[in-house]
Amino acid sequence: MSLLAKPVVVLILNANLSRVYGFRAPAPSLLRYSYEFLTENKMEEDTHQRFYNHAWLYEKAFNWRDIEKECQFLSQLYTTHTSKPLRAMLELACGPAEHARWYAAQQIHAHALDLNQDMLDYASAQVKTPDYFHPHKMNMCTFDIPSEPVGMACCLIDSIAYITTHDAFRTHLESVARALEDGGIYVIETVHPKDTLCDVQTTETSWTVELSESAIDVIFGHPNNKIDPISQITMIDVTLRQRRLCDGKILVDLTERAPLKLYLYQELLALIHGSPFCVVETFGALDTEVALDSSTHAWRTVLVLQKRY
Ligand SMILES: C[S@@+](CC[C@H](N)C(=O)[O-])C[C@H]1O[C@@H](n2cnc3c(N)ncnc32)[C@H](O)[C@@H]1O
Predict the structure, then answer these.
(1) pLDDT of residue 136
(2) Nearest alpha carbon to residue 125 among 97, 92, 159, 87
(3) Structural domains in the chain?
């Protein structure tokens, strides 16, 4: 799946349109996701929450990311577009909030928002500058953080795919705009369109991370997970397994299924048009040197939005 992805470089929503033959009506279960908002009692089943209850394992499983470099990229965007020093940021669907934690360590106020209490507890326990770290258990579709507006917000690694309707996406943008100062920056990272439309696999869907005493296997998606071409939603199976290295004993073994929506670039532009934001830059990775194009270096869609003055 697009989502949680490692460059083939981790793929979440890569149910390939070219493998969907002919027209078929969306299954009733998917129609439900296309029209309904995520409500409190559906969050558990709709957002891989059993998987995310393992915050420590999640962080270790994604240890291939260069968090400092990603944060420097985000800070550079803020400086370029506002010419001001960043004083406060917001990480949406933050998981273990590694980016917010990095900012808190720089004594920049960092707000970390997620549905998952285990993730927020784990993140808070790692922070050495707690006065600068502000966890919020909230839904990214409709929220208000209890603070002054922040300068920069981000929603990374295709967590945006958990927003499965256009109405929810629009209320999400309105919530983010309320949390941002005028001229503030919102950075969204999602899947590269070629992953889905051009049959080019830009991400790996399964990988193993070896720790000193155990190994973690992560598998995003299953060959049976096909995209519904009408709703652009795929019911994605995510497997998390932890094996003890000395005797192979399985310590954690779970597979859970939840809906993730594919957002295509033109769709995002249409959704942003008429919102409190305009698109000021795009990239093909969390890297100012990588353009959003069809070259091999471009493997993500990164949109830089600026809240209108
Ligand atoms: C892929 S993980 C976290 C990724 C994190 N952005 C990162 O870069 O590591 C996705 C997170 O989104 C959270 N999530 C899913 N739907 C959400 C929603 N509607 N509001 C807030 N958090 C949500 C999950 O609980 C999970 O922690």
Answers:
(1) 98
(2) 97
(3) 6-207+260-307 (3.40.50.150)
Tokens 């300068």 belong to: 151
pLDDT at 279 over 90: yes
Instruction: For residue 151, give both structure tokens.
Output: 């300068």
DSSP 8-state class, residue 36: P
Ligand 1 proximal residues by C-beta, below 6 Å: 4, 38, 47, 52, 93-95, 114-116, 119, 139-141, 156-157, 159, 162
Beta bridge partners of residue 139, listed in sequence order: 142
Determine the distance separating the centroid of ligand 1 and the alpha carbon of 52, expressed in angstroms.
8
**d(C-alpha 159, C-alpha 113), whole Å:** 12
**What CA–CA distance (Å, rounded) separates 117 from 111?**
14
pLDDT at 163 over 60: yes
**Ligand 1 test: best mutation among 114, 124, 140, 260, most atoms within 8 Å of CB?**
114
Residue 78 is which amino acid?
Y
Task: For residues 269 and 273, give the distance between their C-alpha atoms in angstroms, rounded to a whole number.
Answer: 6
Of 37-51, 74-88, 174-188, 267-281, the range with the lowest mean pLDDT is 37-51
Which pLDDT does position 22 carry in this prediction? 33
CA distance 249 to 152: 44
**Protein residue whose Cα sits closest to atom 12 of ligand 1:** 93
| pLDDT at position 30 | 63
Q: Residue 23: what pLDDT?
A: 35
- Full-model pTM: 0.89
Query: 63-67, 95-99, 109-113: which has the minimum mean pLDDT?
Result: 63-67
CB atoms within 10 A of CB 140: 25
Mutate to test the pocket of ligand 1, among 137, 144, 162 (most ligand atoms within 8 A of CB): 162
Q: How far is the CA of 285 from the centre of ligand 1 (A)?
A: 19
CA-closest residue to ligand 1 atom 26: 95
Encoded amino acid at 120, one letter = L
CA distance 140 to 162: 10
